[in-house]
Automatic annotation (TrEMBL):
One of its GO terms (molecular function) is ubiquitin protein ligase activity. The lineage of its organism: Eukaryota, Viridiplantae, Streptophyta, Embryophyta, Tracheophyta. It is an enzyme of class 2 (transferase). This is RING-type E3 ubiquitin transferase. Its EC number is 2.3.2.27. It holds the Pfam family GUB_WAK_bind.
Length: 271
């Protein structure tokens, strides 16, 4: 009987300890889509793997075949190569290897993001004839009968060309720059650590962003001290329970022995 109480206490303490451990990082700790993928945590979250409260609206990512993807309403999905929480930079790759197609069509105005790099306005031209060699056509947007260029907005549109759109982008086209990632860095802004405490993500977020101000430092200290005390308390409780159980087991055992001894003595006295 005492032994079973002991086991119940023992295992319920384990239960306390493990729930404590998980409430530290919460369900909102970081996840990865693949072994080499970036750590995903607040303000980002992975749809289907982390509850809605773990991320901020517009920061939803998805995992497809171990690859981290981000979806934009005006574009096919892009691959998330890395996330720097400290610099608030997310680096993307275009699986179709045509960054200027992304630049041309990506409208960030309804997203929480802006380009990480300083942008300038460029005009995309679609020309039926090639321009002089000093202009380099965007290969992945051009075909045999049309030639696409990025030019300064001040340039007069040649007769053979049509201005497709003027967009603020980080870089004009250059054949020397990688066509799948160059310039595809975005940054984000949030109100100061918006609500991450309520989302259970502060600890993780703060450790990733580095402690920028004293206020955050205090916040982080408060957190860790609280959890240390809670851990300590639970460990002490566990020890006390274990010792109490052992003592009561011992007492029960020796009581039984005494009883048996008395019975034995009685038996001996009977004849
Ligand atoms: C994803 O990663 C797991 C574990 O590394 C591996 O077993 C699986 O084959 C990978 N799937 C794809 C589609 O690459
Ligand atoms: C981006 O979308 C916003 C809102 O839908 C729109 O007002 C704006 O003109 C768009 N910008 C470009 C460059 O298409
Ligand atoms: C680009 O052009 C638009 C429209 O003329 C203007 O509102 C915007 O400020 C320009 N952006 C940059 C980065 O020059
Ligand atoms: C350029 O024009 C051609 C032919 O008119 C068209 O097929 C192509 O989609 C256009 N490209 C862009 C980027 O507007």
């Amino acid at each position: 009987m005492v032994a079973s109480i002991f086991f119940i206490l023992f295992f319920s303490s384990f239960f306390f300890l493990t729930t404590d451990a998980s409430s530290d990082g919460g369900q909102c700790g970081s996840v990865k889509c693949g072994d080499d993928g970036p750590d995903i945590g607040f303000p980002f979250r992975v749809i289907g793997q982390q509850p809605q409260h773990c991320g901020y609206p517009g920061f939803e990512l998805s995992c497809k075949q171990n690859t981290t993807m981000i979806h934009f309403p005006t574009r096919k999905d892009l691959v998330v190569e890395s996330i720097s929480y400290k610099n608030r930079k997310i680096s993307l790759l275009d699986p179709q290897s045509c960054v200027h197609e992304v630049f041309l069509n990506l409208n960030l105005s309804l997203t929480p993001f802006q380009y990480y790099y300083v942008v300038r306005n460029y005009t995309y031209l679609n020309c039926s004839a090639r321009l002089p060699a000093s202009f380099v056509e965007v290969k992945c947007l051009s075909g045999s009968r049309h030639h696409v260029y990025t030019v300064e907005t001040s340039m007069e549109v040649p007769g053979s060309c049509r201005a497709v759109r003027t967009v603020a982008i980080p870089f004009a086209y250059s054949p020397y720059l990688a066509d799948n990632s160059f310039g595809l860095g975005l940054s984000w802004n949030l109100p100061e650590h918006e609500d991450c405490e309520a989302r259970g993500g502060c600890n993780w977020f703060l450790s990733k962003t580095g402690l920028e101000t004293e206020q955050h430092l205090n916040l982080a200290e408060g957190f860790s001290i609280k959890s240390v005390i809670r851990n300590l308390y639970l460990k002490v409780l566990l020890c006390v329970l274990a010792v109490a159980a052992l003592i009561s087991m011992q007492m029960y055992h020796s009581k039984k022995m005494n009883k048996q001894q008395i019975e034995n003595e009685n038996l001996l006295q009977v004849p």
